[in-house]
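Appendix B. Extra example for self-study. Work through it before the problem class; the solution is given directly after the inputs so you can check yourself.
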Amino acid sequence: KQEVTQIPAALSVPEGENLVLNCSFTDSAIYNLQWFRQDPGKGLTSLLLIQSSQREQTSGRLNASLDKSSGRSTLYIAASQPGDSATYLCAVRKETSGSRLTFGEGTQLTVNP
Amino acid sequence: DAMVIQNPRYQVTQFGKPVTLSCSQTLNHNVMYWYQQKSSQAPKLLFHYYDKDFNNEADTPDNFQSRRPNTSFCFLDIRSPGLGDAAMYLCATSRVGRGRTNEKLFFGSGTQLSVL
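Solution. Structure tokens for the complete assembly:
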């Protein structure tokens, strides 16, 4: 059974700092990995999707990397801003699970002005 | 413009009183999902529709049912809500086809269900 773990569970940083969020998964037979953002009491917004054949994806100040063989992904946020405060979740899609995603519990990020 | 719309935003029901949550989409996606998310936990897939085909997760209680009358709409029915069913319910959509299971999921804003 696929398990997804995100460390740390919570992170507080001053504005302007570069930061890294971590995601690990137990079964490396994945099709892709997605990073989502969730604001309090809201739904999830897809940030980046990395195919299993890719190493990284970039969008603006966000960069996600994938090391499939070691079961790890990182989300790098450059020059953090208070508006980046949210919970960040990663989710993996297994090769044989069809449309099913397995989510981590997320990292709650607070960027202090 | 919202592409996946969930109504209502907040729903309060009584213990044992049936409740229906709704989801609609303007993306014309063929797959629709219902997730349950409890506070500070990962979203948990309840079931999904691939076109008209219903796919139930093995550990989804019988208390939870779903209907998809057409491509745009999907409903979550909770037949007899218990206190443990209080959670955020998230609807999501994606376009999935042969060899194209790489599509992103688009989520609605969720319905926060309280059970009194």
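Self-check: DSSP finds no helices and eleven strands in chain B. If your reasoning did not lead you there, revisit section 3.
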